[in-house]
Automatic annotation (TrEMBL):
Residues 1-219 form the FAD-binding PCMH-type domain. It comes from the Bacteria. This is Xanthine dehydrogenase family protein subunit M. Transmembrane segments: none annotated. Keywords: Oxidoreductase. PANTHER family: OXIDOREDUCTASE (PTHR42659:SF1), XANTHINE DEHYDROGENASE SUBUNIT C-RELATED (PTHR42659). It comes from Nonomuraea turkmeniaca. One of its GO terms (molecular function) is FAD binding. The keyword Oxidoreductase applies.
Length: 322
């Protein structure tokens, strides 16, 4: 591993003041330190932001503010989160292992990098790691990569489960940085790859995530479902965060976000539009899922994700129908 300097930030403004070329923030280190060991990340300086006073979960009126340094395990166990946003708790608990969740922070989880095998192997080209070097995944190992919103430059998926639930909940990401403070609505934090796959998010250099804020939970029943190759300790092949509000047999509200299918959590707006106001039936859910997946562009070895996503949407919404 390349030698680096370590410093602990005293405050969010101190962290931002220390930012600059070659500097990276350190959360729980469960992704970044792995990437440093692999030579994928090579910071000169690490600024530890995991012990900043950003570790509270607080009610703010009818909203919930979750500090960026809250550990994933504390988030999933929080009584307010479990009572008001059970889908978020389920999403977090479906990720990684107990040990990893004890270390991992909210901000670090959102900013974890793709698990594309070529990205993690510095002996191979990869447009995300080395812009302009090519994307071997397109003709190679892409079973677990994107079917929606992909580009010719990159077909990676974003691996966070938490981000999918936050996208369905219309969460807001609070950021402070050299350019000041701002609020980024989810799912807008993560980008599609386009011709700049080296940029995972819309964050600017030195931006520090300070909190995630949740609006009141949407009415209706909610669920997070994750299809993976084994029952635990595996990233999603496809996942879904869904909320369904049915009144007198008709759908009054619907939120659907998908994970494992794109470079960003995928808010299924077309499916939502097709479902809201219509009957809560399997046929209607199937037509909506097909409308959403119409724009899928699978590769030869990940085409299975399209029917998987379709069936997951239909099955989950049927389960949520009273
Ligand atoms: C074996 C294994 C299995 C896993 N399985 C899953 C899974 O199934 N689902 C899932 O969702 N995740 C999974 N994970 C990923 C895990 O959730 C992430 O490693 C973790 O959430 C990252 O959090 P961290 O605090 O350790 O981040 P770090 O590794 O410390 O940082 C990650 C990135 O975030 C940046 N960063 C950290 N804090 C801030 C901040 N406040 N502001 C701006 N930038 C910041 C860092 O600079 C770095 O770029 C798995 C991890 C492992 C090791
Ligand atoms: S899919 Fe993206 S991350 Fe994977 S090799 Fe291609 S450019 Fe790199």
């Amino acid at each position: 591993m390349k030698t680096f300097e370590y410093a602990r930030a005293a405050s969010p403004s101190d962290a931002v003041r220390r930012s600059g070329p070659g500097v990276m923030y350190l959360g729980g280190g469960t992704n970044l330190v792995d990437l440093m060991r692999l030579g994928v990340a090579q910071p000169d300086h690490l600024v530890d932001v995991s012990r900043l006073p950003l570790d509270a979960i607080e009610q703010a009126g009818d909203r919930l503010r979750i500090g960026a340094a809250v550990r994933n395990s504390d988030l999933a166990a929080d009584p307010l989160v479990r009572a008001r946003y059970p889908m978020l708790a389920r999403a977090v608990l479906s990720g990684a292992s107990g040990q990893v969740r004890n270390m991992a922070t909210v901000a670090g989880n959102l900013l974890q990098r793709t698990r594309c095998a070529y990205f993690q192997d510095v002996s191979r080209p990869c447009n995300k790691r080395r812009p302009g070097s090519g994307c071997p995944a397109i003709d190679g190992d892409h079973e677990n990569l994107a079917v929606l919103g992909r580009s010719d430059a990159c077909v990676a998926t974003h691996p966070s489960d938490m981000a999918v639930a936050l996208a369905a909940l219309d969460a807001e990401v609070h950021v402070t940085g050299p350019g000041g403070d701002r609020i980024i609505p989810m799912p807008g934090l993560h980008r599609l790859p386009g011709d700049a796959p080296e940029r995972d998010t819309v964050l600017e250099p030195g931006d520090l995530i300070t909190a995630v804020e949740l609006p009141p939970p949407p009415p209706g029943a909610s669920a997070y479902r994750k299809v993976r190759e084994r029952a635990s300790f595996a990233f999603a092949l496809v996942s879904i965060a869904a909320v369904l509000d049915v009144r007198d047999g008709a759908v009054a509200g619907c939120r659907v976000a998908l994970g494992g299918v794109a470079h960003a959590p995928w808010r299924a707006g077309r499916a939502e539009q097709a479902i809201i106001g219509g009957p809560a039936t399997g046929e209607a859910f199937l037509a909506a899922a097909e409308a959403e997946l119409d724009e899928a562009r699978p590769l030869p070895r990940n085409a299975f994700k399209v029917p998987l996503a379709r069936n997951l949407i239909v099955r989950t919404l049927e389960e949520l129908t009273p």
